[in-house]
């Protein structure tokens, strides 16, 4: 059994005989830092999906350009 402050409760000895895990969200805004709030906002929901797609496309083009430049200098005729 974990303490209440962790936000996760594990209860094994219920009458139903099944293990139950419940996650409690921290609602106190004083406990969450500004960085955590920004990260939560950018990584979840529709905005999170958009950020992941934009990041993936940017990563693809960065690798593509790096490979193109590397291939140009490796295969350049002397």
TrEMBL record:
Pfam family, one: DUF4731
Top-level lineage group: Eukaryota
Swiss-Prot/TrEMBL keywords: Membrane, Transmembrane, Transmembrane helix
InterPro entries recorded: SMIM1
Residues passing through the membrane, by range: 49-74
UniProt-recorded name of the protein: Small integral membrane protein 1
Organism: Trichechus manatus latirostris
The gene coding this protein: SMIM1
